[in-house]
Amino acid sequence: MFDVPRRLSLSVQVANSVRKAILDGAWKDYLPSERHLSELFKASRPVVHTALHLLAKENLVDIRKCRRTRLLARGNRLSSPRSRLVTFVTGEPTSQIPSAAFQGINEIRAHLAEEGYSTETLVCQYSSAELPTHCLINLR
Length: 140
What we know:
Blueprint lengths: L9 H14 L10 H7 L4 H13 L3 E2 L7 E2 L13 E6 L8 H16 L3 E6 L9 H7 L1
Parallel strand pairs: 3-4
Antiparallel strand pairs: 1-2
């Protein structure tokens, strides 16, 4: 029924901005230095450093000590971008979920947000004897 506001860290926001710029083809083979990126995105160098390591986990960039950060994927070379959306399917509205379960879901959402994923909740009425396959089919 309602979504709890997500708090994205500055590192995640910078990673999202750099990812978009990479996919839009802003840079050819290498990223600018961390210092230059920190000036571009108005963030501290440690924040940019953390953001680049998030992108390295996604295999978008290759980070090597004392070397320039190399792009592993560019916008025109990506065959199919991966979805960054995670859907939670529940049988009852979030307002009726027990508080411990709701808190657990919010913790998962926070961790996903830190990794650059967005989340949504789908309420699907189904009995305990059946699987919510009719709801999952509609997600495609």
